[in-house]
Amino acid sequence: MKRARLAALAAVIAASGALLAACPKPNGYQAVRVFPAVGFAQMTGAFAVPGAGNFALVLTKPGVIYRADLDDPTGATAPFMDISSRVIANPGMEEGLLGLAFAPDYATSGVFYLNYVAGNPRRTVVSRFVAGGATADPATERVILQIPQPFSNHKGGSMAFGPDGDLYIGVGDGGSEGDPQGNGQDVHTLLGKILRIDVSGSGYTVPASNPFAGGGGRPEIYAWGLRNPWRISFDSATGQLWAGDVGQNQWEEVDRVEKGRNYGWNTMEGYACYHPAGGCDTSGLTPPRAVYGHDAGCAVIGGYVYRGAAMPELAGWYVYGDFCSGRVWAVHTGDTSSQPIQLMDSGLPIAAFLQGKDGDLYLVTFAGGIYQIVRKT
Q1: Other Cβ atoms within 10 Å of 345 Cβ, number
Q2: Which domains does the chain have, with CATH numbers?
Q3: What is the phi/psi pair of residue 108, to 5°?
């Protein structure tokens, strides 16, 4: 009996050791500059191009898109498309060209979607374009969706196609401070939401399984109660949807987004009451998966679940960062009780993450430059 207990204890210790060995090492990573030719100011995203070759499209806030060759050590670039004449003039910090999503059949169709802020009147525009080889013509634009915007901040702008083939769109609460219009909790507006639409036709339709497809709210809504979802992405292995939601004055949060869930803004900011400041009713609200305070940063940047081969200890961890501090963290997607681990303090103005075709992750910085996440040597 004693031997059996000892054997069981040894098995537990071995399993615990294996689990610890599989965890990323705190502050055990660094950001290394790569692709020196990719150094554009005000980059808002970079996306690996599906199909042959190893290219990425790099977005800049004023509306110019570049095509970078990631197999070239310099990341040699060339213009891909310019829609600066359609983007709001002199875009503020949270306006401009904000998001891109390749259609699931992009490799054969050349179809892709952009999310940008236009002016007169100020509005979010989601449009379809068609690439012809290494470039795209702005004349191919077909506007799919427009959302009026009351203020100059909190636009969201990230988009991604889900495993179901539908297009998911992160939309901010419309801006100002504290969500004065109450858009986050209002299911009759598209502001402060994650939307899901079917764009397989000439315009868009609403999936029948959307929460309000049968009434009671805007049928495009998939989830609500978001303040400024800056970058959404799907786990390529599990299909789970993740988002970084920029906070107000105290808390930044990471959400695992599920259909029909209310993520709390502006009733809550992170785990804390926001409106009212105390004693808020949290019934029916879904708490974030992770939070951090403004002692560690000021604006969360959503990333990706790591599925590369180079750093197996990160497999299944959602990696995200902060624009102001340059810190990068990871949180385990399977163990909901585990705490985030800080991977590095890069000191970089992280604007977005790039997920390479091999699953490697890169930091896209607003000041110019792309940096690969690697282990410290």
Answers
A1: 15
A2: 39-295 (2.120.10.30)
A3: -110, -30
